[in-house]
């Protein structure tokens, strides 16, 4: 079994080492092929490790660094001063080949700027995109991108997102992924210039299985395998969906928490249902990938708990095994040849 | 009691007279001050009326017209050929003062184009916006606009949406409405140029109570009374939320409808739960208003059922009573004075 090394930004996210260190320890016991390099403040990391009765060994190492990029830091500033930050160093380890992938729960804009600068983009890609899987009623997954790596996009970028998303989904499916564009209506006349131009480009590209537009209320119905949108829309759409799902789960929980006999029955009746509903919350999958780079970078939720960070590390392992960047690169080359660029 | 006349596009929506006619009859019995003019194919309307044991009288009249605007018709074409359609005639009745408001479940783009052409915009408004109320966990409402009247907007339009939304919400609240802009993060550095420019304008406008940015997952938490966004984002956000809510309600229904003993107990004890969850589905409020016009135009969901169309008629009555267009006009004047346009 080949080892896979993940560089984990120990300081990123709302909780820093209190979550990332236990997650690293758990991930090491889950994934026998895994090695983790924790990057951040050595004292905080060591304290957390000790409290878990763990210490550095052949599979777990620490690289100390002082600086942390805050959530309010502008990407441009992070790019100037952030290369010695825990996030910057984690990306660096990928770029010099000391790690196979990097995971961070830090500032998305900074992660994108630093990754782009250090790892470089794949040929034919102008902007990376953040992709994640949404659950569907049928139990399948729908990959959606861009979820906020960019605050605005042109049709060429949206087209590239479609190609990249399709290449990623293809690694999980036995058929050409169905690719749709998120829009405000299913009819051809609907939408803004951006989606119309991208739809035209995709319609003329045989190597992408473009099926047309999809609306927000169809996202979970397994109509498409890949849904493409600009980062502003994608981020708001995903968060709205997570917020709505959480609202319903919370409401049901209120019933179950009642100290009455009814509450007791509700707990007995609905505990399985709550778990089932949770699987429909897009929030369940932690670990969005930053696609389009010559390296694997996984963005974890800022508010991720230990289990969620373990999932993000698992996603990194998957992508390393499936060699996602080179799959995307192959696919891009085929599309670019077809389009006679 | 003063009569209020509503012109109802009987042909609009997925079901046409099969839904609009029973809705008109129900609304007449709900609202004693209401008069309805049904516009559309006289034969279909009369057939529906007869089957309900109802006929035209002093409160219910029919205006025949042949043409219906389809959902796939471009707004530009609807504008050229649609003035003799059921939708166009309904709007006309408002513009000539024969009706106080119009309600249609037809093509949104056509409704907007025809309304704008026939009713004209309020002074200081460049584009109308579609506004509707979302439910919140606390039982209050949050008004959101634009929900898709426009597929793209500039900062000036977004600013005008904020002023209009605030003027509408003010009619329902005892305090200055809290106005927020929908964005991908709460920090000042987040977002695209559009939201940043609009935020700057609102920060410098004392007569609007601007509280900053709001994220998709906070929409239902009563953080804001008015949420402003461009029509593309708003439409997708609303539909995503409705889709997610429906998914959860369906899941719970399946559980409660099960023929098992568990299903039976769930039905006996928790029949109120589904209704409570339904009140959290943004879909519950039917009847979005087209704000910014010199007249009242209410857009009903295309898929609205009888009850939902009755709600849309009720919304029209509310707005007539509260004289919404002139309230917005007053508010705009105050803001424009303040901004020294």
Comma- or semicolon-separated keywords:
homodimer, 341 residues, alpha/beta, Isopropylmalate Dehydrogenase, eleven-stranded mixed sheet, 11 helices
Helix content of chain A: 40-55%
Number of strands of chain A: 11
Largest sheet of chain A: 11 strands, mixed
Proportion of residues in extended strands of chain A: 15-25%
Question: Average pLDDT across residues of chain A?
Answer: 90
What's the helix-strand series of chain A? EHEHEHHEHEEHEHEEHHEEHH
Instruction: Report the total helices of chain A.
Output: 11
Low-confidence stretches of chain A: none
CATH class of the domain at 126-291 in chain A: Alpha Beta
Rg of chain A computed from alpha carbons, rounded to a whole number of angstroms: 21 Å
Structural class of chain A: alpha/beta
The coarse silhouette of chain A is globular
Strand order of the largest sheet of chain A: 3-2-1-4-11-10-5-6-9-7-8
Question: What distance lies between the first and last C-alpha atoms of chain A, to the nearest angstrom?
Answer: 41 Å
Most extensive interface, residues per chain? A-B, 57 and 57 residues
In the CATH hierarchy, what is the superfamily of the domain at 126-291 in chain A? Isopropylmalate Dehydrogenase
> Which fold does the CATH topology of the domain at 126-291 in chain A refer to?
Isopropylmalate Dehydrogenase
């Amino acid at each position: 079994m080949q080892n896979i090394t993940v560089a984990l930004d120990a300081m990123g996210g709302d909780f820093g080492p209190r979550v990332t260190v236990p997650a690293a320890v758990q991930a090491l016991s889950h994934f026998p092929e895994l090695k983790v390099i924790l990057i951040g403040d050595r004292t905080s990391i060591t304290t957390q490790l000790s409290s878990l009765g763990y210490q550095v060994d052949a599979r777990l190492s620490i690289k100390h660094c002082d600086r942390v990029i805050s959530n309010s830091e502008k990407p441009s500033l992070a790019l100037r001063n952030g290369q010695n930050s825990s996030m910057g160093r984690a990306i660096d380890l990928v770029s010099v080949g000391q790690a196979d992938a990097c995971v961070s729960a830090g500032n998305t804009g900074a992660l994108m700027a630093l990754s782009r600068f250090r790892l470089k983009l794949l040929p034919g890609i102008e902007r990376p995109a953040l992709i994640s899987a949404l659950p569907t009623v049928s139990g399948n997954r729908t990959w959606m991108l861009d979820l906020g790596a960019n605050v605005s996009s042109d049709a060429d970028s949206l087209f590239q997102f479609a190609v990249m998303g399709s290449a990623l989904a293809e690694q999980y499916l036995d058929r050409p992924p169905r690719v749709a564009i998120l829009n405000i209506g299913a009819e051809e006349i609907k939408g803004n210039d951006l989606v119309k131009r991208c739809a035209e480009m995709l319609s003329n590209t045989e190597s992408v299985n473009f099926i047309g537009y999809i609306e927000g209320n169809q996202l979970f119905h397994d109509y498409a395998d890949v849904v493409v949108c600009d980062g502003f829309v994608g981020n708001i759409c995903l968060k709205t969906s997570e917020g709505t799902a959480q609202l319903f789960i919370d409401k049901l929980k209120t019933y179950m928490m009642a100290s009455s006999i009814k509450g007791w029955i509700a707990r007995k009746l609905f505990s399985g249902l709550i778990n089932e509903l949770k699987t429909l919350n897009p929030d369940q999958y932690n670990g969005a990938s930053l696609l389009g780079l010559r390296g694997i970078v996984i963005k974890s939720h800022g508010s991720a708990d230990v289990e969620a960070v373990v999932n993000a590390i698992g996603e990194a392992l998957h992508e390393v095994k499936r060699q996602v960047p080179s799959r995307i690169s192959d696919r891009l080359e085929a599309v670019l040849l077809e389009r006679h660029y």
